[in-house]
């Protein structure tokens, strides 16, 4: 009977710890905010109620958080999760995940590294990453929007307006989401 009791106790303890460990992640997923995301909201298969600790990423195959490192998931999955974390307001986590991406010469990776830095207050660092991303993809609408927001945050309003004009040209009109978001940012001073 002692062996059975010991097994049952260990099992109950493991289940209890699992539930307790999941609570902060579920609670944390409700906050953050993040402004416009532009495009799809793919999260690389990460459940909406799951935010892994810094340095970990969600493995859809294993259905648990695993260490964020090159090869732990594909670059595409790491990029999607890094983007989702950045847009949800988990900037440190996003940077850790995006750092694990093998291909650092990817415009989306550079954009969301820049986005995370800008949102943490490192506006000039963010602008630098946006410029690198635009060297790779000059027509990236999200990057143009975020660069304009970065310029506006830094008080460089003329440069922000130039990005708005570029967005109007790239979109073909002024009704695309990125143009509207940057225009609103310039009008209100926030997202």
TrEMBL record:
Alphabetized UniProt keyword annotations: Signal, TPR repeat
Pfam families tied to this protein: TPR_19 (PF14559)
Gene3D superfamilies registered for this protein in UniProt: Tetratricopeptide repeat domain
Transmembrane segments: none
Secretion signal, residue range per the UniProt entry: 1-27
InterPro entries associated with the record: TPR-like_helical_dom_sf (IPR011990), TPR_rpt (IPR019734)
Record flagged with keyword Signal: yes
Each TPR repeat, start to end: 107-140
UniProt keyword Plastid, yes or no: no
SMART domains: TPR (SM00028)
Identification of the protein by name: Tetratricopeptide repeat-containing protein
Lineage: Bacteria, Pseudomonadati, Pseudomonadota, Alphaproteobacteria, Hyphomicrobiales
């Amino acid at each position: 009977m002692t062996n059975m009791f010991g097994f049952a106790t260990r099992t109950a303890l493991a289940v209890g710890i699992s539930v307790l460990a999941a609570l902060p992640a579920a609670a944390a997923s409700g906050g953050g905010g993040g402004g416009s995301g532009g495009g799809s909201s793919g999260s690389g298969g990460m459940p909406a109620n799951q935010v892994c600790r810094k340095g970990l990423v969600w493995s859809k195959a294993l259905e648990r958080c695993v260490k964020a490192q090159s090869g732990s998931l594909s670059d595409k999955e790491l990029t999607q999760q890094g983007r989702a974390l950045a847009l949800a307001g988990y900037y440190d986590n996003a940077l850790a995940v995006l750092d694990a991406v093998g291909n650092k010469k990817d415009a989306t990776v550079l954009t969301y590294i820049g986005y995370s830095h800008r949102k943490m207050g490192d506006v000039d660092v963010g602008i630098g990453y946006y410029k690198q991303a635009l060297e790779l993809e000059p027509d990236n609408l999200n990057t143009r929007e975020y660069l304009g927001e970065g310029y506006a945050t830094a008080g460089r309003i003329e440069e922000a307006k130039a990005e708005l004009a570029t967005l109007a040209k790239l979109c073909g009109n002024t009704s695309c989401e990125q143009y509207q978001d940057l225009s609103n940012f310039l009008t209100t001073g926030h997202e």
